[in-house]
Design a protein that fits this description.
9-stranded mixed β-sheet, 14 strands, 27% helix, 3-stranded mixed β-sheet, Rossmann fold, alpha/beta
């Protein structure tokens, strides 16, 4: 698939998957969020230690703020990504309730002036995910660029829904796969270049 064809195809798939996610409705999304919270809380105990980065949810994405509150109570420091310049890697800035937020691209809030931190773990929302653990995001490449730039790579957990599963996103050389994928069904671990199911939701 040529670059222009891939861009068009990914754009169409992105729109289709976002529409399917939003069509689930608020009650189903909240129920999925609660299951995902339990899966992550019980399956990744190390998230309560160190720096956990997550994303402010938009358009029906998994809302990590509830889990982040629980993990802060257990000792985690939480952070949100911020765009510093177009085409440049993101930075992560400490965030907890009370830290002032500004509004960036896609109307996503970010901490404007809190200290920069390096994440040990990242909860990364996905519009789509494939059988090899690759993520379909919003097309700007910020997270791939950021993960590639970090000297110490964090544990990256992609979070999405079963409805967003795809055979492939046709990954390119710059695409970085998730270490784990979590959906309302359970956990998937990446091993040997493929995702393996590692346990159902409680």
């Amino acid at each position: 698939m040529h670059a222009d064809e891939l861009k068009r195809w990914r754009g169409a798939e992105r729109a289709r998957l976002i529409a399917a996610r939003e069509a689930l409705g608020s009650a189903a999304l909240e129920a999925a969020r609660e299951r995902i919270d339990r899966i992550i809380e019980e399956g990744f105990c190390a998230l309560s230690r160190g720096v956990l980065a997550f994303c402010w949810p938009i358009r029906g994405e998994y809302d990590a703020r509830h889990l982040a509150r629980t993990l802060r109570e257990r000792g985690a420091l939480t952070a949100l990504p911020a765009i510093v310049a177009k085409g440049k890697p993101l930075v992560f800035r400490e965030w907890h309730p009370g830290v002032p937020l500004a509004v960036g691209p896609l109307n996503i809030p970010y901490p404007e002036a809190s200290p920069e931190v390096l994440p040990d773990h990242v909860l990364l929302p996905m519009n789509g995910w494939d059988e090899s653990g690759y993520r379909l995001g919003y097309g700007a490449g910020y997270f791939d660029r950021t993960l590639a730039s970090l000297q110490k790579k964090p544990l990256v957990i992609g979070v999405s829904y079963e409805v967003a599963r795809m055979p492939t996103i046709h990954p390119q050389s710059w695409d970085i796969p998730m270490d784990w994928v979590v959906t309302e069904r359970g956990r998937y671990r990446r091993e040997g270049g493929k995702l393996a199911f590692a346990g159902a939701a409680p």
